[in-house]
Amino acid sequence: MGLIHETDYGTPASTSAKTVTLTIDGKPVTVPEGTSLMRAAMEAGVQVPKLCATDSVDAFGSCRLCLVEIEGRPGTPASCTTPAAEGLKVSTQTERLKQIRRGVMELYISDHPLDCLTCAANGDCELQDMAGAVGLREVRYGYEGENHLVAAKDESNPYFTYDPSKCIVCSRCVRACEEVQGTFALTIEGRGFDSRVSPGMHESFLGSECVSCGACVQACPTATLTEKSVIEIGQPEHSVVTTCAYCGVGCSFKAEMRGNEVVRMVPYKDGKANHGHSCVKGRFAWGYTTHRDRILKPMIRAKIGDPWREVSWDEAIAYTASEFKRIQAQYGKDSVGGITSSRCTNEETYLVQKLVRAGFGNNNVDTCARVCHSPTGYGLRETFGTSAGTQDFDSVMDADVVLVIGANPTDAHPVFASQMKKRLRAGAKLIVVDPRRIDLVRTPHIEAAHHLQLRPGTNVAVMTAIAHVVVTEGMADEDFIRERCDWDEFQDWAAFVAEPRHSPEAVAEITGVPAETLRAAARLYATGGNAAIYYGLGVTEHSQGTTTVIAMANLAMATGNIGRRGVGVNPLRGQNNVQGSCDMGSFPHEFTGYRHVATDAVREMFEAFWKVPLDAEPGLRIPNMLDAAVEGSFKALYIQGEDIAQSDPDTQHVVAGLEAMECVVVQDLFLNETANFAHVFLPGSTFLEKDGTFTNAERRLGRVRKVMPSRSGMADWEITMALSNAVGFPMDYAHPSEIMDEIAALTPTFSGVSFDKLDRLGSVQWPCNAAAPEGTPIMHVNGFVRGKGHFVLTEYIATDERTGPRFPLLLTTGRILSQYNVGAQTRRTGNTAWHPEDLLEIHPHDAEQRGIRDHDWVRLQSRSGSTSLRAKLTERVAPGVVYTTFHHPETQANVVTTEYSDWATNCPDYKVTAVQVAPSNGPTEWQAHYEDLSEQNRHIAEAAE
Ligand code: SF4
Ligand code: SF4
Ligand code: SF4
Ligand code: FES
Prior knowledge:
The protein is built from 29 helices and 36 strands. The strands form ten sheets. Strands 13-12-27-26-25-14-15 form a seven-stranded mixed sheet, covered by helices on one side. The protein has a six-stranded mixed barrel with strand order 31-35-32-34-33-36. The chain has a five-stranded parallel sheet with strand order 20-17-16-21-22. Strand 1 and strand 2 (27-32) form a beta hairpin. Helix 10 packs parallel to helix 19, helix 13 packs antiparallel against helix 16 (504-511) and helix 13 (459-472) runs parallel beside helix 19. It is globular. It starts with 18 loop residues before the first strand and ends with a helix. The relative contact order is 0.11.
């Protein structure tokens, strides 16, 4: 197994349908019109020397190395900037060209350190390759003249260095930052000999706008921008393609390895979700795999508070199984349950729900998607018939209007955000619906046409008011509705939204959005061409989360924006496999593929396959399990890869539930918050240590491939299998591919999925079955999955969470680019350089009223609890609204969130909490206590090493 080399065609592919035929060095080649001569030559198998061109960015034509001769044309044009044309006869290797190229290379090399043997890029340097390719053997100018060889390095970024002495000023990095990433952090400063690459105005990389996506490092042809891990470890020897385990974009990466050590993660050009791009998390933040805090040996203890005792895997599994059996014998079969993880693979998630349903004999299984995207499942199924987003990511390139609501893609889904920004720079219009001025509202070369800065909790009122404008101003797409939807239901819905109480003017007071802005946004969405909706947790984590999802689906149907490229309703899923964990039957009422446990035919099929009778009654959801634990009827919980003590709302209630149980099993990488209440700790494996699949936000199944042995000795699916066998329900899989075969056999939407097919195609989007053997990029093309599209009335009901004299501000929460969820992984990487603590964003006006200055400690208090953190004064939030992230356990924003939740799915109302903010002296008592606990856990991890 060697390194995977991807061809660099020099310039991006042309998408033209028209082709031209030409000859290059006598070889005929046919390419799409608009293809560069350089790329056409590559297609013909001829490699033209190049330095400033690479196929991730548009050609620039500065290095003059790629010159060619064209019969009948004067001069030596650059092949990277000259388009192929019908009948051209191109020569790439004449004596004249060779001489010019050698001259060009000679100039570059005369100003370049000749330390190839000790350079980190030795063997992976295009300058070195080109010197060889043009046959450069000597440099006539000597090396003594004025040069850049002593220029100082910038090592401020935690992951890569910038060594200007090696820079050839090809500007590939600058173009990558602009075109691929869309951040515009780099410029070429100075002119002629003095020109150099600069992040910002004389800033360091770390201090600049740079978001550390790595696109410039990827594009750099020399060792100027180099991963520190390559400098430390050396060049990789082999690579394996796998899928990022952070967010729901699901980027493909080549894990480049030396032995069992990761040298770097390189975004894979053939990855259909990311096309060779990455963000700081997937590209660089994988070091947690080898972090000293990882627990690698199983541990048990009789009661919480006792010291942990390290045991063998056999003992840990036997003990856990005996506890579950004892508890079920003593308290009944329904006294135990399990929680699946949206971080683990599909195959692992499937096994946990199978263990619960078949091994424990009840349906008490739930997933953390309960606390994020359960309203998506419910709302989209009600209206369209399928619990998933409608488009692939590439579809955004055909959108004319992009409506982003309750999502912050540049922070939470950065690679998709880069693609979206590319489309917006090319002219698509943007509507942002968000209480906070997210980066997208105004970012280099992009400005939202409308920012609807609504009051948290009023999404339904805003979406229904948009529908009001669509209907009352005659902008509904009647042809589409008559053909694709239930016409009578549409009329009922149209009459409902047309009621004067839903007009923008009537709701302006409640929503805080001026009526004219709302009307203008509605007109743009309905008449601006292809309109696509992208949304996130700012939609779902509300007491009316499901209603907002339905309102968006109604709007898309009413305007005909569904069923083709460039349109649709798209959830931006937070965690890598949150779509997959829902698909795999993690909810208490559903088997795989969203089929109800009470449906006899489905249940009987599972019973026949698993050879065990199954319960027809839906089981308990997470909040109900905790309630039942407090009441005394629920006693044991198997939790795979989930930290409910930190990520679920109303922490004190979660803790009370956990404390009341007799056996809590935590299977995770680190001693997380929930492990403080656990009796068994089973060490989990990272995505680098196991095989399987993840399903991203566009329903795309990507392969996760093992690149190193599991440090704990067992992959998570092996642990669940061992536990199932020990409780008496046999499971026997030699490899996760066999688990996928079982899923495919039992699930109509997955019947065409297999590891072989994934290896062959790279990835597939479900439904993948006989009707769509290579998967389904766009849903509902010729009709809705449920038949006729279903319009549902969306009555706005204000959340019970109200501001008042005691709690006059509204708190809302979100993510930041460099950190991930509760931070268990990212806090154990160099990413802490960007976000060492959670901050409370507060409008200067509200801060002044309270005597709060920037960076002061403040106490954030709700009726549920209080926490302390530092304040950041900013006009990104409107007066009356405060905002924080939830990445640091010592802040624990969920201590203040309440028990309110979505009416349909119990998804917590994380995004609206009435709070008060006051100056404080520092951390609260429980925060200090938390610090002590963390310290103890650190000692346990160290002692176990
Ligand atoms: S790492 Fe990304 S954001 Fe930073 S300078 Fe390079 S391309 Fe731009
Ligand atoms: S840093 Fe690299 S990519 Fe950027 S101009 Fe210099 S050599 Fe080219
Ligand atoms: S965008 Fe998401 S999937 Fe892609 S590299 Fe970043 S964290 Fe990973
Ligand atoms: S590669 Fe064409 S001019 Fe540099």
